[in-house]
Amino acid sequence: MIRSINKTRLYALHVVSAVAFTLVAAGAHAQDTTTTSVRHGEPLVESNVRNAEIVYVEGNNLVVKLEDGKIEHMIVPLNEKFKIDGRYVTVRDLRAGTKLTQTVTSTTTPRVVTTVRVLKGKVWHVSAPKSVILTLPEGKNQHFQIPADAKFTMNGKPITAFDLRKGMTIEATIVTDEPQSVVAQNKSTVGRAPVPELPPMLGLLLFSDITPAQMPGPLASNVRVEFANPPAALPNTASSVPLAGLLGVLSIVSALGLGVARRLAKINV
Questions:
Q1: Which domain holds residue 87?
Q2: What is the tally of structural domains in the chain?
Q3: How far apart are CA 104 and CA 48, in angstroms?
């Protein structure tokens, strides 16, 4: 990004450190030369850090939530890199919940571009002693300010701006200073992916008395359940009375069955 302000001054160099216009004969051949020089100033470096959390991503569409709670939607170039957990990825590899920290470093370097143009042109209009309009070699008219300390000579004699007349051909040096600010930006984005949730633990905690390499058969046949405090013996809550009753009922049913079988046998005889 370059911001510039143009400032144009009209000078003619007659001697060192003197400013002058040199008037020449009307039939002289036009000459037009231009030189440019650049003076750089001290650069100014600024850093801006922003923290955000990804709330939605699809393709190169990225929606983030900033620290102040604002939601921002961005179209991210597919070749832009993000450093997530030490690994460089593109926007397509991002996912919701990722924390981002972006550092933008801006370096602003001031400079002045000075253009010196020596040309011959015809006086089209004079507003002495402040300005003059010249017809340049390419046929365009251009307005110039005359510095207060400008000096003019014509045929070796000093003259003033009031002596300029329309149609005169003059040789002049035009100095243009153009202050600029050159801004260079460098962006780096790092982040942390969301930690996956652990699945809930279900069932009993089982311990095996052999290593997995020693298991010859299915895992279930070599697994035992251990209790922290196993009971010494089962509680004495059972009784043999129900069993004796059941045996008695079975005996009665058997006797009745045998009696019925004998009667049937006599009848058949």
A1: 45-108
A2: 2
A3: 5
Q: Where are the beta strands (DSSP E) in the chain?
A: 2-4, 7-11, 20-24, 32-40, 44-58, 61-66, 71-75, 82-84, 87-89, 99-127, 131-135, 141-145, 151-154, 157-159, 169-192
Do 83 and 160 have their domain in common?
Answer: no
Both 97 and 121 in a single domain?
no
Instruction: Let me know whether 23 and 121 are in one domain.
Output: yes
Give residue-wise pLDDT tens across range 103-158.
989 999 999 988 887 777 888 999 888 888 888 888 889 888 887 777 776 777 77
- Contact assessment for residue 90 and residue 77, using Cβ atoms and an 8 Å cutoff: no
- 10 Å Cβ neighbour count for 217? 7
CB neighbourhood size of 226 (10 A): 10
Over residues 214-226, the mean pLDDT reads: 52
Tell me: do 54 and 168 sit in the same domain: no
The label of the residue with tokens 């593109």 reads 90
Decide if 122 is inside a domain.
yes
